[in-house]
Amino acid sequence: MLQDDALTAFPCKPALLLTLVALTGLAASPARAQSAVADGEKLAFDRGKGNCLTCHVIRGGDLPGTIGPELKDIKTKYPARNELVAILFDETKRNPQTMMPPFGRNRLLTDQEISAIVDFLQTL
Amino acid sequence: MKRRATILLGSAVVALAALAFAATRVVAANKIDPVADAKAFQNFFFQKFPNVKREDFVNGPYSMNEDMRRQWQEKEEFPPYEFALDAGKEMFAAPFKNGKGYADCFPNGGIGIRQNYPYFDEKEGKVVTLELALNRCREANGEAPYSYVKDEMASLTAYMAFTSRGKPMDIKLPDDPRALAAFENGKRYFYTRRGQMNFSCASCHVQSPGERIRAEVLAPALGILNAMPIYRSEWSGMGTTSRRFITCNSQTRAVPLEPQADEYRDVEYFLSYVANGLPISGPGARP
User: What residues of chain B, 203 to 222, have a C-beta less than 8 Å from chain A?
Assistant: First the structure.
């Protein structure tokens, strides 16, 4: 997951890239990170993509639903990026009865799209 | 935080229900108990919403939300289904080309009988819904059937529901293994997850009634058919039960069935049976 993410972020220097990611993650390239966050927000709000507002209150989004909890202070609650990726990929693993669609497993979102949304979630 | 706790608790209850369901299915061959099912189903909602009057569940989202209810009550002074109701009354009374009419096809001339539909037809061995019975009546009298999802059908069922308003739903389950199987099949369809979003009917209407999904407030599954057909502003018109089922399936990217497919007939049978005792409130109006 991280790997894919990094490859799109720095297409040309794999060795350096790994070091950079290991040391500082996306913060190494603020511009790039910012655009991933913006893409993530778009994907999260897009009715044909994440459509997360159907169920979650999210800062900056209109007409939110109330089925899921408000998405805020995400970094405090889920410091590990992997946890968020897992929730988006298939929340039924944590909670078999959840309403939240398995976005990754059912290919509603690609790994890259999930990664961008996670970037956005970490700013909330 | 509190909300999340309720959601998780809700899930736990649904999980238990699902487990119980799985367990009953294991022994389904020798024990299907619709009477106990209906009781458990009703109690689930009565306990989840202790402040909602029992006969009020039939008002869908309005039973769950005070603000919406107020707007609805204002709207009821000039109900948006009035047009369909008038059209339905006229259509119902107009004779077919052969001189007969709908009244000849139904018990009591079709008046005040909505609460008995759908019923299990022991000759056919299948569930017959009101919409299906209306089209069969037309065809038996040499008329072309109506679309199950358009205005004519909604007008006819709106009128028939109106003549039954307030009567308690009264669905019979004959002592016939095929009727039990139809009930069980409808129940299975209702609780099975499907489509890319992985929702079951129960995800929305058992697990989350009263919650907002975007701007819409989800109706409780208890009595969810008592108000059919409904006028919806979003549709700028009326919708039949068939239309609502298809819309719920396709909006969640599940493949909808044909109107009046066996499974839709069975799920209508299941939902109506577990609503026995709750009043007919149709036609309904929704935002």
Answer: 203-204, 207-208, 211-215
